[in-house]
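Input chain follows. Return structure tokens only.
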Amino acid sequence: MEWAWLIPVFSFAAAPLIVVFGRVMPGRGSVLAILAITAGFGLFWWVFAGFLGAGAGTENCEISHYTETLTCHYEMAWFNAGLAGEASSVLLTWGFIVDPLTVAMLGLVTFVALMVQ
């Protein structure tokens, strides 16, 4: 599930490639768009299977007090300004949450995008 952030990255990476190489490719780059969405849809199934197999004891996962559903939190360090461990240092992180709504929307959006392509 920690790879869920890669699903939109495939499309973001394909967009400039289509702009640059689209004219010389057969189908004007449509193959790249279809491959990017297909890769995202395939990765959705990986995330979906991981979410179904996860439980409250899974690392980074817990039962939410508000929704009473399984919620998984993932956070990664992005940038550290200053000396690590110092009181004046600043650590910027980014993260995401995987819950039932997130998984459903990942599946719905990638499936519809694949059908539109």
